[in-house]
Amino acid sequence: MKYTFLFLLIFIFSCTSSQKQETAQATKDLNKMSLEEILEVPVTFSDKEYTLEKIKEINIPIDTLSRNLSYNPIYHDADTAAYYIQGNAAINSIDFYDLDKKELYKRIKFERNGNQMISSTRRLFIKNADSIYIFERDYSRLTLVNIKGDIVKRYSIPKEQVLALEVGMEINFKVENGKAYFKCSPYIDGVEKAGEQKMIAILDLEDGSLQFVPAYSPSYLSTTRENPIIIYNGMLFHDNKYVSIFVITGHIHYGEIGKEEFNQTRIEKKDSQNSKKNFKATSEDEQLPLDYYFQLLYNEEEELYYVVALDGIEVINPITGEPNTPDDRPLTIIIMDKNFHHAGEITLPKKTHYRNVMMARDGLLVSNAHPKNPNNDEEILSFTLYKTKQIK
Question: Helix or strand or coil: residue 252?
Fold first, then answer.
């Protein structure tokens, strides 16, 4: 009997401790913490746990004009078909690959000069076949084209503000209901404005105005000059919401787009040592020991979030004595529940997957085009499909 009572006491204390930890995190303003303080914020764990299991590989032959990887990959579900889409810089085209038929479905080529020119096809948002938006930073504009390659409309972006907008592999943009949503630089107004800089920009496609809205950048960015690696963050837009993650601290902002109020939390790998590493690293090699949380994805069906992380490694390989490179970093996927609680993590096979990870209809689609993968064939687009599996 006394052992049962003791067990109950331990269980109650454990639950209370967990609740206190989460409440304390929710009531503290992480934005006002120092770099040292934010790295000590504990991660909240879910009572559920997930992993990823391999479902299948998808291999698609490509021509000599194409690459088997992209720095801005896009997955698009068109109901009747699923497509992998990439901008082809070599011929200034947008290439659509049918993932089910395993073939090139459509290639839209654009002029490089004249009134019908498109300066770059790398930064895209695909709404549907007749609404393909291309972000052209060098020309301060957003261009709407259709599947035929016709330029439907161009939207000007204020030149003095376009440099604040960031679009890339880990930071796509979104167009919805006459507005375009962008992540903007958390330090565009200078590090002295850390804590005040708004990190989302909304372009009104009707009147051309650009509005900056919360969340606000964290005050620890004021240490940027001493710690340059901390300034970067990825961002995800879905529905009317946004989620942002700072790549070194794992500091997450989330909320409803356009609202003044926002929420904060923190995520990291279970074995992360970032708090003990050198944040004054300036070169890519010096940054290798730091875990790098660079991309967010959302699984709408299961209400799960994924953080794509590059694991920290030693600058010198302890076995070979040779210098490591960024391509030697293993790729880890952290799974979070809808409340942004840590709900599992898995390190994918080393030197297999390139850091092209997309949320697909049936799971996570990960490129196999790692430059050190012995099976990497430059004439094949190769992906592995992983599906979430609950294990607790």
Answer: strand
DSSP summary character for residue 45: B
CB 257 within 8 A of CB 213: yes
User: Distance between CA 324 and CA 327 in Å, rounded?
Assistant: 8
If one counts every other C-beta atom within 10 angstroms of the C-beta of residue 309, the result is 27
Are the C-beta atoms of residues 314 and 324 closer than 8 Å to each other?
Answer: yes
Peptide bond into 343 cis (omega under 30): no
CA 254 to chain centre: 14
Tens digit of pLDDT at every position of the chain (392 positions): 444 444 443 333 444 444 444 444 555 899 999 999 999 999 999 999 999 999 999 999 999 999 998 888 999 999 889 999 999 999 999 999 999 999 999 999 999 999 999 999 999 999 998 999 999 999 999 999 999 999 999 999 999 999 999 998 778 899 999 999 999 988 777 777 888 899 999 999 999 999 999 999 999 988 877 777 888 899 999 999 999 999 999 999 999 999 999 999 999 999 998 888 877 777 778 889 999 999 999 999 999 999 999 999 999 999 999 999 999 999 999 999 999 999 999 999 998 998 889 999 999 999 999 999 999 999 999 999 999 999 99
